[in-house]
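Changelog-linked ticket: zinc ion example.
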Amino acid sequence: MKTRWARAWAVVGIAVGLCVGAYIASQGLPESLLAEPAYAQGAKDAAPSFSPVKALADRDVYYPGSEDLAPDEMRIVACGTGMPNARPKQAAACWLVELGNGDKFIFDIGSGSAERLSAMKIPYDYLDKVFIGHLHSDHFGDLGDLWIGGVIGNRQRPLQVWGPSGAKPEYGTKYACEHMQKMFAWDDASRKGNVNTKGTRLVVTEFDYKGVNQVVYEKNGVTIRTIPAIHAIDGPVSFILEWDGLKFAFSSDTFPNKWWLEHTKGCDIVIHECFAPPSVLIDKQGWPASDALNVGTQVHTSPAQFGKVMSEITPRLAIGYHFFNDFDVAPAVTEMVRKTYDGPFALAVDYMVFNVTKDDIRIRMAVIDEDIWPQPSVTEKLPADPSQKIGFSEFITGGRVPYSDIVDKIYDDINKRYGSDVKAPD
Ligand SMILES: [Zn+2]
Ligand SMILES: [Zn+2]
């Protein structure tokens, strides 16, 4: 029955449409549709065109690589705001801090974040300083990608890493980086003689995790200090960066603690973990209540604890991260934060951008180009050193099918097109 009625109404609709169309065709468009729009009346010369060619006003988004920083300005980009488990929407912990003096610092480099960093369209030469708060994979899991990615992606400088010691040497940053290099032994060997490996050098500075307000970096007007963090076992730290009268603090992961309350008071920007509430861990992930409560309020800082911390240190802007910021989670997190804090705060998602000066904090989203390629290096990209080449065994070489006529032609074409003189191997 329904179908028959629907068909009947469709026929009526088409008939009415045809009649109206026929009427307009015979009479022309009604006067009301042709009249000058009200906003243009009386201002004919300045009237907007119906076919504008000028760009519209700023859409209040950030296009990476398109904006200079003012000499007194700090830009912070959320390159990872998620949780320990990887997911497409949010990489794990990573924050890029760019300063008006040209310096750039990466705080934590969790799983998935190397991709976000590349979307900022910054040559790898400038992404050479990484500060790691602790050695959980969601805070340093993409270090290998930035390190090796930089070797292929045009970084011509060593990658420098700062990170804490641990209660035992094997829990420290040095040990982690040395063994990461060992893990990449084949990768490292395979690139020798095929690309220039200048960027393979890794310079690690390990500092005492118990240092309180300890200076770990001081250069070019920038001071970076650490304070101990309380998270899972001994070793984690939080960072405080000071430059040109601006103060930035990043918790990495921590339970609320006395060092944070003492040393981050009155900061301009504080980024502090605000972990998924225990109820969310139970409902979404099926955790037992005992684990959800322990992880959500003892190992990490829950939203209500986050709010309490912020109400004690009163930053210009508090930024909460380290939860899956979804439509059904954000309202619950906001409600819990508001129970203990009534100041300004933002709940971060990846690609949120904060421009900070003494007078203003502007929050936008970055619009990124997914078709990103590595940016050309800022110094000359050197060719591979053939003397480093390890090559193949006789067994593997014996399996090659060279298609020499095809490859020789590619060499000829490239030499002609780019004026080079590279000989195809025999
Ligand atoms: Zn952690
Ligand atoms: Zn974490």
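Closing comment: Example verified and attached. The first strand starts at residue 74 and ends at 80. Residues 15-26 have pLDDT under 50 and may be disordered.
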